[in-house]
Design a protein that fits this description.
Helix content: 40-55%
Strand order of the largest sheet: 3-4-2-5-1-6-7-8
Organism: Hymenobacter artigasi
Order of helices and strands: EHEHHEEHHEHEHHEHEHHH
Protein name: Chromosome partitioning protein
Strand content: 15-25%
Largest sheet: 8 strands, mixed
InterPro entries: AAA_dom, DNA_Partitioning_ATPase, P-loop_NTPase
Number of helices: 12
Shape: globular
Length: 246
């Protein structure tokens, strides 16, 4: 039975999609069978892995218009995202068991994969609740700067409520820093403050600022395929190793 990991933060632009793609690729390099699910209405994970004009996506599957469809994306499998996900809460918000629609959708495929990675939208709404309700672990990418850390308490508060009401197995697997530059005093000090405040949650691995990480999705590649000798590849390899040992 696969382990489901959600990558989440209420703030956009902190590296959720980049991390989902590259951690997935790193897990494949470690011999794991990996499914990625694009839950962000921007569908950047889908575009960044080169899947265009998918005839079936997670939104249609959640609405039971057709069975869940996974497409091959390099050595991983990917359930495509859709802009229509932005209207999911309006459509399903009044339904009974609305928080468990994704769990029900993924249950039949869990035996086929070692890991299922969920790329969550930058909002703590119904799609995110569905991700939390079916996950075993959450990973929170974070920039070590003031505004990026402000939303962390809201994420942790939602996790606590989900644990009480929807998914007692849910836990925070870890917080990790993205676009990190230890030469900058503010970044370094903020990271140390977070490590002091959340000593059991902040991971040792961090992702340095890297041009290659920004370039790879434009060529529909993960960082290991695009630039295997880059700092981004080195950092994500270390992060994957740490996730596997936690």
């Amino acid at each position: 039975m696969s382990k489901i990991l959600a990558f989440t933060n209420q703030k956009g632009g902190v590296g959720k999609t980049t991390s989902t793609a590259n951690i997935g690729a790193g897990l494949v390099r470690a011999g794991k069978r990996v499914l990625l699910v694009d839950l962000d209405p921007q569908a950047n994970l889908t575009k960044g892995l080169g899947l265009v004009d998918a005839d079936k996506n997670v939104y249609g599957a959640l609405l039971k218009e057709y069975p869940l469809k996974a497409y091959k994306a390099h050595d991983m499998w990917l359930v495509a995202g859709s802009p229509a996900l932005s209207g999911f809460e309006k459509l399903k918000g009044d339904e009974l068991d609305r928080e468990f629609l994704l769990k029900e959708l993924l249950e039949p495929v869990r035996e086929k994969f070692d890991y299922i990675l969920l790329d969550c939208p930058p909002a703590l709404a119904l799609v995110t609740l569905n991700a939390y309700a079916c996950s075993q672990e959450l990973y929170i990418p974070l920039e070590a700067q003031l505004y990026a850390t402000d939303g962390l308490e809201k994420v942790l508060d939602l996790v606590s409520r989900v644990q009480r009401r929807l998914n007692p197995e849910l836990k925070v697997g870890g917080i990790f820093f993205t676009r990190h530059d230890a030469r900058k005093v503010l970044r370094r000090e903020t990271a140390e403050q977070m490590r002091t405040k959340y000593p059991k949650l902040v991971l040792n691995s961090f992702i340095r600022e890297s041009i290659a990480l920004g370039e790879a999705p434009h060529l529909a590649k993960d960082i290991f395929t695009y630039a295997p000798q880059s700092a981004g590849a080195t950092d994500y390899q270390a992060l994957v190793a740490e996730i596997l040992t936690r």
